[in-house]
Structure formats: C-alpha cells, structure tokens
Specification:
By secondary structure, the protein is mainly alpha-helical. It has helices spanning 2-12, 14-25, 29-42, 52-63, 69-98, 109-130, 136-146, 151-176, 180-183, 186-211. The chain has one domain.
Length: 212
C-alpha cells in the first residue's frame, strides 16, 4: 500500500520531483529522462512509469532555462524510438517460442496468422495511436514484433508516431506549462493529461462490455 501511495505522489506531483532531480543532478537529468521513457516504451514489465505527463512537465521545466529544449526533445525522441524498437525485437524473438504450441487455446499458429494479418493491415494506425495511450504504448510494439509486422514499415511508422508524441506534449509544456493558471494548478493538469490518455481505453472497454 505504501508503494502505491508513493507512486501516486510521484505521478500527481511530478513537477516537484522532476524539478528536485534537475536541481540535484543537473545535466544528468537527460540520462534519467532517457531511462524512464526507454523503460516505459521498451519493457513490457514497466508500463506504469509516467509518460505523457512526464513529457509535459519536462517541457515546462525546459522553458524556465533548466534544460535545452532541442536537446531535451532529441533525447526523449531517441528514448521513445529505441524503446519501441527494443520492445519490437523482444516480441520478434519471443514469437516463435510462444506460437510453437499448435493446440494451445491462445498461442497457436492460427492466432499468429490472424495477428500478423491485422498488423500488416492496421499496424500503422495502431502504433501511432498507441503512442498516446498508457499501457497500449508499451504493449503495441511488443505485439507488432510477435506478429512479425514488416520491420522497415514498423520503423518508419514508429519514428513518425514518436515524433508526434514527443514534440506535441513536450512543446505543449514548453509553451504553456508556465502560464500562471496552468503552473499554479499543474497537479490538476497532470491528472487531466493522465485521464485524457486513459479515456480511449475506457471507451473501448465500455463498448466491449455493452456488446458482450
């Protein structure tokens, strides 16, 4: 329970924690941010790390002179793209093992063929949209790897989606994060970003329940 409370405090008061890290570690903050975004996008076991809100707050801190916005965006984009590609290749290598059981209810060749066909047809939209959705952002590239989505296509689309995600949220923080109304209510803004990020997943779940 204490761990949950601590994590909730970090998410809600991300501005305070990130500012403290910046004050304590200086330019090492770039490496810290790289590691967080890399793990959030590249490791299926860490989808709980802050993503959208972290980009916004980092942009807001850059506007105060604490970080160079160009360097920040480059570091975050590298972390997002390398993370997704790591996730893709993990899934790519795990896939043959997962789908070797022909009679498995969930992991069988028929399931693989359907998943592969889906990602070849709709994978582009899935990868881009997932960038803006917690959890899905972590699992989409992994599933793309398992489904053996054509890698050159994945790489181009993933880079495009990464640019949209990184630049939109980081620059939004840079341009608007220090407006007095937003700065004085940054915790509420962070919660709103998290809520908006989760909305598509919630709508999808409710639609699924309604048709079940």
């Amino acid at each position: 329970m204490e761990l949950i409370v601590t994590f909730w405090d970090i998410v809600v008061h991300l501005d305070r924690h990130l500012a403290a890290l910046l004050a304590q570690y200086g330019t090492w903050i770039y490496a810290i941010l790289f590691l967080i975004i890399f793990c959030e996008t590249g490791l299926v076991v860490t989808p709980f790390l802050p993503g959208d809100s972290l980009l916004f707050v980092a942009g807001a801190l850059a506007a105060t002179g604490g970080m160079d916005i160009a360097v920040l965006c480059a570091v975050l984009l590298a972390a997002a793209v390398i993370g997704d590609n790591t996730n893709y290749w993990i899934g790519h290598h795990i896939g043959p093992t997962v789908f070797r059981w022909e009679q498995s209810r969930f992991f069988n060749r028929a399931a693989f063929d359907k998943t592969h066909a889906f990602y070849e047809k709709h994978g582009g939209k899935t990868i881009v949209i997932a960038r803006f959705m917690p959890l899905a952002r972590t699992f989409a590239p992994f599933v793309a790897g398992v489904a053996r989505m054509t890698y050159p296509r994945f790489l181009v689309i993933d880079f495009f989606g990464g640019c949209l995600w990184i630049f939109s949220l980081t620059l939004a923080g840079y341009w608007f994060g220090n407006i007095p109304l937003i700065k004085n209510n940054l915790s509420l803004v962070i919660l709103s970003i998290v809520a908006l990020s989760l909305t598509p997943a919630l709508i999808g779940y409710l639609r699924h329940r309604a048709t079940a």
